[in-house]
Amino acid sequence: MHDRDSVEPFQPTLDSLAGFEVPDWFRDAKLGIWSHWGPQSVPRFGDWYARHLYREGSDQYLYHRRTYGHPSRFGYKDLVALWKAERFDPEALMDRYVAAGAKYFVSQAVHHDNFLNYDSALHSWNSARIGPERDIVAAWRAAAVARGLRFGLSEHLGASFSWLATSKGADERGPYKGVPYDGADPAHVELYLPNEDHHTRDVLPKPWYTTNPWWHRRWLELTNEMIDKFQPDLLYSDGPLPFDSDDHAAGAQVVANLYNTSARTHGGRNAAVYTQKTRDADLVRIGVLDVERSQEPEIRPDPWQTDTCVGGWFYDVRARYKSPEHVLEILVDVVAKNGNLLLNIPQLPDGTIDDECSYLLDAMARWTAICGEGIFGTRPFRVYGEGPGRVVIDHFREDRVEWTSQDFRFTQRGNVVYAFLMRWPAEGSALIRSLTRSDTVRSVRLLGRGQVDWRHTDEGLSVRLPQTSPAEELNCLAIELT
């Protein structure tokens, strides 16, 4: 056990960090909004642009060459200067996110592109000096804190050393055959990194995390700068805990700094959360499991998080967006299994959101006003749900489920069980079989409408519903037990 009265209760070891306890704010929050935004939004051509523009023949390479010029002449260093964020209004956006139900907000501090979205004293390739000439993270933080939201950061820096090595290549054919891309110029090594030995033409970088000790130290100092500067309530790493097995134990040092920084401002008790993407038993216990673009099949004993996006991670004119119904179905299914949803709303390069995202947020706001009682501050019921509908558990697959009127998802607060109707029954009544005779029902409300008639039989709880539903998307019953 840790001395919770200490201002530094954690040491940079996995055994010490295993004393992490999930703070109540994260258990209660259920929904976070993420700004996965930066210079890679400028082309409006999707995720991983800074890597793939250097992969000859890829869609992004072809788009880049035909739009901006060959990457030996116009590379990523030139693209970042085009990011101006000239219409970025974090206060107005944060108001929309709060109305949609967000209880925490996560700002991307740095993607794999090694470009920082804040004013860094350690790295000159940052948004305060180049492009927007503004500390984007500081602006987001001020807007979130002013509205009572918890504030988080995402760092994708651990993989950058390998990820950016495509900039060291050259075309194998055509008029620029053999001409090095601009990343080979030593004058730009601070951005593109000394990673020549990691160059491949593969879609994915190999390895994800380099063994290069210089990069481990660099990642450590930059990530600690983020923590010290912004004191986040949440820190997200895009991958497993970086560099946890080397002599420097850089990952453990960062997490200890995160938790101890929080403890110094919370009476000696940590209130911050670290999320990472491995199920390794020793690493899961130091923070919260993050499941990218997927879900869990059952209730997890400890809170977890899924992160997903409306369309693509960076703005992409080709993307097909999730409907409001799909997003809300994901939220309900995740919360029923003891999880949180971190939802990225893609931003245009000027900082605004498009009308499709505005439509989604408006729909979420209307739904939250009706059904939010069954989401925020709840805990899992003894079962997450009933009925034949199941989400597909397959990495990066988010197929929409063909729900039926027999499908329910459950949450609970005190003696109230919330039953979400994943499809409104055409027959005008709902039968909930998971509520047996041992559950003594006192009353049933349809959120947004009020008390409804019900009968408790050996089959389960039968509820008579009105002809029309209060919410356009899925609806919720509040069942009070004695």
User: Helicity, in percent?
Assistant: 25-40%
| Class by alpha and beta content | alpha/beta
CATH fold descriptor of the largest domain: TIM Barrel
Q: Provide the CATH superfamily of the largest domain.
A: Glycosidases
Total tally of structural domains = 2
Low-confidence stretches: 1-5
Roughly what is the average pLDDT, rounded to an integer? 96
The CATH architecture of the largest domain can be given as Alpha-Beta Barrel
Over the alpha carbons, how many angstroms does the gyration radius reach?
24 Å
N→C terminal distance:
37 Å
Instruction: Please count the helical segments.
Output: 14
Secondary structure: number of strands: 17
Strand content: 15-25%
- Give the CATH class of the largest domain: Alpha Beta
**General shape:** globular
Largest sheet: 8 strands, parallel, barrel
Strands across the major sheet, in which order? 1-2-3-4-5-6-7-8
Domain Glycoside hydrolase family 29 N-terminal: 6-373
Protein name: alpha-L-fucosidase
Keywords: Glycosidase, Hydrolase, Signal
Family: Belongs to the glycosyl hydrolase 29 family.
Describe this protein with a few key phrases.
18% strand, disordered N terminus, 6-stranded antiparallel sheet, Immunoglobulin-like, 482 residues, alpha/beta, 8-stranded parallel beta barrel, 26% helix, TIM Barrel, 2 domains
Structure report:
This protein is α/β, with parallel strands linked by helices and 482 residues long. The protein folds into two domains: 14-292, Glycosidases (TIM Barrel, Alpha-Beta Barrel), CATH 3.20.20.80; 385-481, Golgi alpha-mannosidase II (Immunoglobulin-like). 26% of the residues lie in helices and 18% in strands. It contains 14 helices and 17 strands. An eight-stranded parallel barrel has the order 1-2-3-4-5-6-7-8, surrounded by four helices. The chain has a six-stranded antiparallel sheet with strand order 9-10-11-17-13-14, with helices on one face. Helix 6 packs across helix 14 (355-371) and helix 10 (213-230) runs parallel beside helix 11 (250-264). Residues 1-5 have low confidence and may be disordered.
